[in-house]
Amino acid sequence: MAARTQVRTLATFNVNGINARLPHLLEWLGEAQPDIVALQELKATDAAFPIAAIEDAGYGAIWHGQASWNGVALLARGATPIESRRELPGEPKDTQARYLEAAVHGVVVGALYLPNGNPQPGPKFDYKLRWMARLARHARSLVDLPHPVALIGDFNVIPDDIDVYDPKAWKRDALIQPEVRAAYADLLAQGWTDALRAVFEDEVIYTFWDYFRQHAERDRGLRIDHLLLNPVLAEGLVEVGVDRDVRLREKASDHAPTWARVRVPKTPSR
């Protein structure tokens, strides 16, 4: 008998400090009730992750923390993600907490926080390009799997000029450099679907607004939080969006939750 499907909501949210923004996160989880959530910039050690509050909200979680910087987590509504990997292969001495992979509600999810790369040129930009190369190699092993796979998170990549309010003002930034854009384009060329762009096509939509000059209120932002779906999952794409209102709340993160609703195949029944 053919496999049935169920609609799941996948989301990514750079919280810019899990404990500082915990009330915002819990409020949004209660409102949106996403099934799968990737968090970035925890800025907390493993021991400081607020697992009790997350569980009280109805979510299981796994996390990879780091003091003061970085840190990623995966949340699952009514379940606990089954971890398969917590770093990208290819650079054993890299200790930055930027990648976490697990099976969640029938989907293999790679949650990532790609390096910023500024200032460029320099060592931080070189690290960004190496990280993107490692991501591409690992992603190639995932994209053609026969089950749903998603790579979601803060990619720190502005793919095209339409994804930034003022391309000229950002022309020297690491997020917009030709090498970075080319690496992202090569990643998509493996067969990944950029969910937001697949639906919004040539419309302007942002996921990040810095704290300067009321950029959030004036909608002067960037699109740097991405949800990439392999062909199996992209086939079931239903809807995408950005919860910009979360960014406009008092003492908010500079990112907004970005999400996609997808049909995920259930286990075939007899």
TrEMBL record:
InterPro entries: AP_endonuc_1, AP_endonuclease_F1_BS, Endo/exonu/phosph_ase_sf, Endo/exonuclease/phosphatase, ExoIII-like. SUPFAM superfamilies: DNase I-like (SSF56219). The record marks D225 as: Important for catalytic activity. Probably binds two magnesium or manganese ions per subunit. One of its GO terms (molecular function) is DNA binding. It comes from the Bacteria. The record marks H255 as: Interaction with DNA substrate. Mg(2+) binds at N14, E41, D154, N156, D254, H255. Residues 11-255 form the Endonuclease/exonuclease/phosphatase domain. Transmembrane segments: none annotated. The record marks N156 as: Transition state stabilizer. The active site is at Y113, D154 (proton donor/acceptor), H255 (proton acceptor). Its cofactor is Mg(2+); Mn(2+). It is an enzyme of class 3 (hydrolase). Keywords: Hydrolase, Magnesium, Manganese, Metal-binding. Its EC number is 3.1.11.2. One of its GO terms (biological process) is DNA repair. Belongs to the DNA repair enzymes AP/ExoA family. NCBIfam families: exoDNase_III (TIGR00195), xth (TIGR00633). This is Exodeoxyribonuclease III. It comes from Luteimonas terrae. The gene is xth.
